[in-house]
Amino acid sequence: MHFTTFVRVSVAAAAALLVAFALSSSAQGAILSFWSGNTNPGANPGPPPGFENAPTGTINFGVGDNAEIVALNAFAHTGTLDTTAAFIYLYQVTDNTVDIGSSAVALNASLLSSLTSFGYFTGRGFHDGAEVTNANPFGTFDGVYSNLPDPATLGVATPTTVSLLAGTFKDPTTVTLNDIPLSAIDSLGVTFSGTSLLLPGDRSSLIYFTSNFAPKVDNGTITDGGTGVNGFVISPTDNPDQILPIPEPASLLVWGLGVGLVMGTGALRRRKQVA
């Protein structure tokens, strides 16, 4: 096995074990509260020149464990959901002002091929004590819409997903993985067009992809025509230094992540010496 591949597998396995240990008290699937939240791309307090028609909305996001993937597989979705993956990344877009025709999540180009499935769950949305809408983002609303990009607000006390009533959501028109030539950054692209165009007050259904890599903070966008605004969301990483922290008591296991990598590297070296 190539050294780079070996390290990536070690990071993914260690991160998955870390989360599994943190959630070992529950056999049920879970949306992980410490890796869930929202970002609010927009122009605030007023649109700068060139952004007069910029949309203002929210990208809500969450990461689920493997048991959550298995549970979600029972609900209608596009694509072939990989029920063996360590994590499922979920996104739901809500619109506040101007029509939203597309959204995107940045992905490391080196990890694009590692996404094991993608698509959307029709009629499924986030819930944090109440259904997520344009008036109720997933977790805490910081009261600010910005294009700096807008910071990610992390931490949702009671994150879960629920079935939505017909007529209260819009499914994406397309969900694609975009391989951008000569770029270190690719993307998950989502379009909303025709009857799926997000109008002020609208919300999308849940968009997903699965991965064996834990999350970092990366860029997310919402766009009206050619005018896009940016916020920070979650996206997988193969760099252990970029993984978002897990709060106590699970954060104690970060030590185990480092030990696992050291042991794995040592084993590889011994294998080379024997060879």
Which properties best describe this structure?
275 residues; alpha+beta; five-stranded antiparallel sheet; 3 helices; 17% helix; globular
Strand content: 25-35%
Provide mean pLDDT, rounded.
82
SSE run: HEEHEEEEEEEEEEEH
Can you tell me the residue ranges where pLDDT is under 50 for at least 5 consecutive residues? 1-9, 250-275
Number of strands: 13
Structural class, from secondary structure content? alpha+beta
- What is the quaternary state of this protein? single chain
Largest sheet: 6 strands, antiparallel
Span between termini: 13 Å
Roughly how much helix do the residues carry, as a percent range?
10-25%
Number of domain units = 1
- What would the principal axes of the Cα set say about the shape? globular
Strands ordered across the widest β-sheet = 5-11-3-2-1-7
Please count the helical segments: 3
Integer-rounded radius of gyration: 19 Å
Could you describe the 3D structure shown?
With 275 residues, the chain is α+β, with helices and mostly antiparallel strands. The protein has one domain (26-253). 17% of the residues lie in helices and 29% in strands. It is built from three helices and 13 strands, in the order αββαβββββββββββα. It is globular, with a radius of gyration of 19 Å. The two termini are 13 Å apart.
Give the helix/strand layout.
Layout: H1 3-22, E1 37-39, E2 57-64, H2 66-72, E3 87-95, E4 102-108, E5 117-121, E6 124-127, E7 153-154, E8 160-163, E9 174-178, E10 185-191, E11 206-211, E12 215-224, E13 227-236, H3 254-274
Antiparallel strand pairs: 1-2, 1-7, 2-3, 3-11, 4-10, 4-12, 5-11, 6-8, 9-10, 12-13
